[in-house]
Amino acid sequence: MAKVFEIPELLSLICKQAWRSDLARLLTTSRLFFECALPVIWESPPESAPIILMRLLPDADLYLENPLDTTFAAGLQPLDAQSLARFNFYAPYIKQVARHQRNRQADVVWDRLLRLVDTRPILPQLEVLKFSLSMTKFSLQDPVQFVSVYLCPTLVEIDLTRKPDSIIEPQDLSDLVSSIALHCPHIRSLKLNNITTFLRSFNTSELATSLAQLHDLRVLGLGPIALVPRMTTALSSLPHLESLILNETYHSPNSEDLLKPLDCILPSGFPALQHFGIKPSFDFERAARVWNLSALAQNLTSVSVRIDVEITRIDFRSFVRAICQRSPLITALALDFSDSPNYLGFLVADIIDDLALLPLQYLWLCGRDRGITHWDSEKFALAFPKMERLRIRGYYLTFKDLKFIAMHMPRLRQLSVRVRLNTEWPSKDELSSFALTPSQSRLYFHLQLDKLHPIRGPRMVMEALPNEEVEMLALGLHILWPKGVICEPQQRSDKGGKPSYTDQINTALRGLGKFSEHDAMEVDSHPRKRLPEWFGRL
Question: Which domain of life is it from (predicted)?
Fold first, then answer.
């Protein structure tokens, strides 16, 4: 057995396939295995990373006492070089670290560890840094000092977006970006969303200059300050910027710089930009101005917009039309207004006509749930013959709707919708006599079932279904997608051992189409083409 762990090719294969916990238990098998497995084990430690690192220090148990005591760190002094020998050996292997404020114990231990280890950067080969900080943490501490202990030349991704609405003063933001530009010249993804609140005007020259230095930047998440003309000009000069996410936050309505015309961008600006995203809080006036900037809008291939404020149907229609007319190359579009206080019908004739102008392959439409089932599904399906991945929320589909989707979307490979079970779904006898044009594609179906209760209204199905309903559903899906359809598992089996309704349907589908487990694996659950990160999984 020991000889197996002396063959480099086998060791490499083991390290790629085995769980990290198993690799850790095998570390002492051989020196060669130790050297092969060590980078894999330490590359991305869990949230308990500071506790793991603390145990590399002498007297670790002492430093880990009272793990929720925030005052303990104040009395700690840096350790000498000899005491840091083990820490300094393992620290360079860590490539990714996340510090989440929700994990209070780990957050406290991080503060202690940074007192004991005064080496900067503390993790010299770090590549990915993710933070989740509360408003209090960012308000009381200098964000530059707080983050700079992790900054190093190897960093390629920084994500400070995980805690919404944390406050940072404008000058602090400028200093933070300046420090990142100085210490992380090869940064590719910088997300500073949800942490910027501008209560007054300030000079953006320094911030714009710092951002313009990030020549390798591919992804940038920033607040509405990105639409200040000086800032937009700086961003337009970045040669590799592919994705710009405008993260709206609470802002002063008197921020005049944000309303100045964006007429200073050269036609050659934003040479690589493909995706533009808007997250809450949506400001219609500022968002609409983006599509007046042809250099930014004209080459976009994907757009994601989340609307969580009240917007009139006229403004919404105007906004959608501007996107469709001024960004004609869009193949992936997400419109999410499920948190909007007013209801907006998005599957209506004029909106469908506008969206049909785009060569859409990936579409995500998410609205407020009102139990609506009436819409022109045939017009919708005919409008998007190139559709490959479709996700709809806020509407309940019937068998008729699925029929049009199967008939008129021949390339569809993934579908995520809610289906109302007891509305217009034909019986087994009716299904057997149907004459329709089935789809030529195989489908991976994220199916959510709903039943209309006579008193309580629509209710999502959570339990197993009667065999008769399972057979009826499976037969209907098989008729529409005879080359193969499989439902994404929605639930685990319940405590009584009964399968979920998706398990039931998949079992019935395999019987109908002689659909083997091997065939099920061939149904494409992941798109071949690279999707924007925001689209997510079905």
Answer: Eukaryota
Q: Which of 150, 225, 155, 153 is nearest to 193 (CA)?
A: 225
Q: Helices marked H in 19-59 — which ranges?
A: 20-25, 31-42, 49-54
What percent of the residues of the chain are helix, what percent strand, and what percent coil, each to the nearest 5?
40, 15, 45
**What is the residue-wise DSSP string for 400-461?**
HHHHHHHHH-TT--EEEEEEETTSSPPPHHHHHT------SS-EEEEEEEEEEETTTEEEE-
Q: Report d(CA 500, CA 250) in Å as an integer.
A: 43
Check if the beta carbon of residue 495 is closer than 8 Å to that of residue 502.
no
| Residues 165/197, Cβ–Cβ less than 8 Å | yes
Structure letter (DSSP) for residue 498: P
- What's the rounded Cα separation, in Å, for the pair 474 and 536? 27
Higher per-residue pLDDT: 354 or 514:
354
pTM of the model: 0.85
What single-letter DSSP state applies at residue 191? E
- Rounded to 10°, the helix 205-212/170-183 angle is 20
Residue 284 pLDDT exceeds 80: no
Instruction: Name the average pLDDT for the chain.
Output: 83
Q: What is the pLDDT at residue 523?
A: 56
Predicted confidence at residue 481, as pLDDT, reads: 94
Please state, in angstroms and as integers, the Cα–Cα distance from residue 48 to each residue in 51, 53, 134, following that order: 5, 9, 19
Alpha helices in 152-224 (DSSP H): 170-183, 205-212
Is residue 422 within 8 A of residue 473, CB to CB? The reply is: no
pLDDT at 340: 79
SS3 sequence of 62-109: HHCCCCCCCCHHHHCCCCCCCCCHHHHHHHHHCCEEEEECCCHHHHHH
